[in-house]
């Protein structure tokens, strides 16, 4: 058996690098660890951290193919962030003109959560802890 320590990162390929960079850094507040342009690939790689913990690699590639990204589509289901105050999170997102799905209740934990979509329609969940 492999002894896993933790998830190292989540890789996301975006269609509009500047728009996604702005979303993940200015809207969600992730910190830039490193930004590199790889000439041979015509691709950016943006390393992002949350509270000092490296967590997301944001990539751009020329003409990436589209992929269905609804929460129930095959593949990565969604990216989830824990928040302390869901109402405050929703208010902020709506003030940034981001559509927020109606708040739901987790039937097992009774915790509240909701979803938005990133600029490429990747589902992002906010789960109140």
Name the average pLDDT.
90
Which segments are poorly predicted (pLDDT under 50) over 5 or more consecutive residues?
Answer: none
Quickly name the level 1 CATH class of the largest domain.
Alpha Beta
- What's the CATH architecture of the largest domain? Roll
Beta-strand proportion: 35-45%
Indicate the percent of residues in helices.
10-25%
- Structural class by helix and strand composition: alpha/beta
The largest beta-sheet arranges its strands as: 1-4-3-2
Contiguous helical run count: 2
Number of E-type strands: 8
Q: What is the total domain count?
A: 2
How would a crystallographer describe the biggest sheet? 4 strands, mixed
Radius of gyration equals 16 Å
Keywords: Metal-binding
Protein name: VOC domain-containing protein
GO molecular function: metal ion binding
Pfam family, one: Glyoxalase
């Amino acid at each position: 058996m492999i002894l896993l320590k933790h998830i190292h990162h989540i890789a996301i390929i975006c269609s509009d690098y500047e728009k996604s960079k702005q979303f993940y850094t200015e809207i969600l507040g992730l910190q830039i660890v490193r930004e590199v342009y790889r000439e041979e690939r015509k691709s950016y790689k943006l390393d992002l951290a949350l509270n000092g913990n490296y967590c997301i690699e944001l990539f751009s590639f020329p003409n990436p193919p589209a992929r269905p990204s609804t929460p129930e589509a095959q593949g990565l289901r969604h990216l989830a962030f824990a928040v302390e105050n869901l109402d405050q999170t929703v208010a902020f997102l709506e003030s940034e003109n981001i559509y927020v799905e109606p708040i739901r209740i987790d039937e097992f934990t009774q915790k509240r959560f909701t979803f938005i979509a990133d600029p490429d329609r990747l589902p992002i969940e906010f789960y109140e802890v």
